[in-house]
Design brief:
single chain, about 450 residues, eleven-stranded mixed beta sheet, two-stranded antiparallel sheet, 13 strands
């Protein structure tokens, strides 16, 4: 009878204890691997968020809020920037390679943010350095054309050539539509393009040109002026009709000619500073950053954010929680080692007679010690293998949640180095846990345990 036969029969004889111990180890391994994988993959996804821009300008409360709102659509920007300020900044600044205006504040179906911008958004800005936009169809070219993010298209089933209407107000986090304004059924947008997945928040956005948004704002302004002399009851009736898309007798066709300078507002400016070809670093960046921080060119000042630095801050915040979760995973793994030790030690009382028989048949004390240690290591190996399988499934589920909730597509592939290290650590911990029961087996008295029972 070989040692492996003895070990396998021993494990089958205690099948329930073996299975539950392996399951405990597997859960600990899976938890550790999923956390390590998601941490690294999420970091890579966040690092891509700033694309090829150097600076993000807004009037949000802080640079971090500016990045969260402007790049991840976490909320509606606080205050607008006059388009004339943007034009002056972009035209008269030799340090700027390009600047792209963006306006946020509207939505589609109370779920998807609308990004109003210019065609330069798709020509100059890149979702990540060196990666161009991939679009089915084409970018918007004229007023009232839209490009859908990949997630918007897949979740709504919308196709190129169909028409949609947009809603005033930014989508609420719970998708309830709380705080949204009315839907503009008077203005139909034609879908002319659908983005290929970028793995970023752009996948859950709807893109259109600035003039289309400004026309709608001009329409609201003119409507408000038309109702200026109405009583509260009449105004409420018209507002209710407007919310349900009913036409007004006094409504007029609005065109770009009706848009005033006051209607032309944006919320963000994407800026890339001049740099050498092929280089992302620029000596002009700190100079421009300092000038903007002092409010040059913008009335009332401007909030200046460097996306990479702000995302590093986000990651530092997340990493503090991450360390706690990793510590919990390590504690779970340690508890699985204790479970192995208890399972094997408790079985010693039932196995002392078997061990005594093995000793009589010629098995040395060192061989008995090796059998118990090997059995412990096998339990660790089975737990590690099962844990890797569970981690693969868990990583796919976590990636799906990240994509659905944040619009981030992350690679859920387990890293080979992490798998090897965690598996090796698990087997070593299991072997260490088996040391106490192995010593108990080593010290088993042959004479005392071969006495007749009863």
């Amino acid at each position: 009878m070989t040692d492996w036969t003895i070990i396998l029969r021993s494990m089958r004889a205690r099948l329930f204890s073996t299975v539950t111990t392996v399951a405990t180890v597997a859960v600990a391994v899976a938890l550790m691997l999923v956390l390590l994988t998601m941490r690294d993959a999420a970091r890579r996804a966040f690092d891509k968020g700033g694309g090829n821009m150097h600076l993000l300008l807004s009037r949000d409360a802080s640079p971090l809020v500016s990045v969260l709102n402007g790049l991840f659509y976490a909320g509606s920007p606080r205050a607008p920037i006059k388009f004339s300020e943007f034009e002056s900044f972009a035209a008269n600044n030799p340090l700027v390679e390009w600047a792209v205006p963006v306006q946020l504040g509207d939505s589609y179906q109370a779920r998807y943010p609308v990004v109003a911008t210019t065609p330069d958004f798709f020509k100059l800005f890149r979702p990540e350095p060196g990666a161009d936009w991939a679009i089915q169809g084409h970018p918007f070219e004229i007023d009232f054309e839209v490009v859908l993010g990949s997630r918007v298209a897949s979740e709504t089933g919308l196709k190129i050539g169909q028409w949609i209407t947009l809603t005033h107000g930014f989508p609420s986090q719970d998708g309830s539509g709380a705080g949204l304004g009315h839907e503009h059924n008077q203005f139909k947008y034609s879908i002319v393009g659908i983005l290929e997945p970028t793995g970023q928040a752009y996948d859950r956005a709807v893109f259109t040109n600035l003039m289309s948004t400004w026309i709608i704002h001009a329409f609201d302004r003119i409507e408000k002026e038309a109702h200026a002399g109405e009583s509260d009851e009449e105004h409420a009736d018209h507002a209710d009709d407007h919310a349900h898309g009913h036409d007004h007798d006094h409504a007029v066709a609005i065109t770009a000619a009706d848009v005033t300078e006051e209607d032309k507002k944006i919320t963000n400016i994407f800026v890339r500073v001049r740099s050498r070809e092929g280089s992302d670093a620029s000596a002009a960046l700190p100079v421009l950053f300092d000038r903007l921080r002092r409010g040059q060119g913008f009335q009332g000042g401007i909030t200046v954010a460097q996306p990479k630095q702000e995302l590093d801050k986000v990651w530092q915040i997340v990493s503090n929680v991450d360390r706690i979760i990793l510590a919990i995973a390590a504690a779970v793994m340690l508890s699985s080692g204790i479970a192995i030790m208890l399972a094997l030690y408790n079985s010693m009382e039932q196995r002392r007679r078997q061990i005594a028989v093995l000793r009589v048949l010629g098995a040395s004390q060192s061989r008995v010690l090796g059998l118990v240690l090997t059995e412990s290591a096998v339990i660790g190996l089975l737990g590690a293998a099962t844990g890797i399988a569970l981690a693969t499934i868990g990583a796919l589920i976590a990636a799906g949640i990240m994509k659905r909730q944040l619009g981030l597509t992350i690679d859920p592939t387990l890293q080979p180095v992490a798998m090897i290290l965690v598996a090796a650590g698990t087997i070593a911990l299991a072997s260490l846990a088996g040391l106490v029961p192995a010593l108990a087996a080593y010290r088993t008295s042959v004479m005392r345990n071969l006495r007749p029972i009863g």
